[in-house]
């Protein structure tokens, strides 16, 4: 009886060993999973880095009334009321500026020729929330074209891309009747970096004078638009020169420092 009890005890003990090992193994696996899961999780409060937008190419706008040369103004707007132009109202001329010229070349009984030229500049800064200055300018470029296409009373609207004016440019020509006369219009919308240039040129013949050629109006508009785009780069080149040029005071301090050291 005593032998049977001892044998039974040994059998039960051996049978219990695998069970404990399995349980121990499960506990070990569970612990390792928790540890591995904890190591793979991101640290609390960690933030994803957002790429910074590209800086704006241009920080300045040109003087709009000087963006087109006097020679060109004289050619495009004969008898202009003011060669200096009429500046547009703006609360911030570093972001938005414009100028216009108009004139009537009166030829007496032969009639008169009227011309009107307008140029506008809009500059966009880069903004982390709104995007780069160039991208914002691209969006405005599209908006300006849409406005031109929907000009009230416009007829025979023709739109096409233009090469050689900024990074992208489109021309829009159309006819418009007002004050009882037929006008020829040409608008050039161009983008250079983060600046949009919108230039409109139109003309009409009065008192029996011949209506100007649409091709001539467009050719002159393109010429003026090129000057306006170039003026943007020139304005910023001049700004860079001013910043990089040494001021008078550092030179004086350097000289005085040199004298004191020599003494």
Descriptive overview:
By secondary structure, the chain is an alpha+beta fold. Helix content is 41%, strand content 25%. Strands 1-2-3-7-6-5-4 form a seven-stranded antiparallel β-sheet. A hairpin with a 6-residue loop joins strand 4 and strand 5 (168-178). It is elongated and about 75 Å long. Mean pLDDT is 82; it is low at 14-41 and 248-263.
Kindly list the characteristics that best describe this protein.
41% helix, 263 residues, seven-stranded antiparallel beta sheet, 7 strands, disordered C terminus, alpha+beta
Ends distance: 119 Å
Order of helices and strands: HHEEEHEEEEHH
Give me the count of strands. 7
Identify the strand order in the major beta sheet.
1-2-3-7-6-5-4
The chain-level mean pLDDT equals 82
Give the structure's gist in a few sentences.
This protein has about 260 residues and is an alpha+beta fold. The chain has 5 helices and 7 strands; from the N terminus they run H-H-E-E-E-H-E-E-E-E-H-H.
Topology (elements, then pairings):
Layout: H1 2-40, H2 70-76, E1 86-87, E2 96-106, E3 112-123, H3 133-149, E4 155-161, E5 168-178, E6 181-192, E7 195-206, H4 214-244, H5 248-262
Antiparallel strand pairs: 1-2, 2-3, 3-7, 4-5, 5-6, 6-7
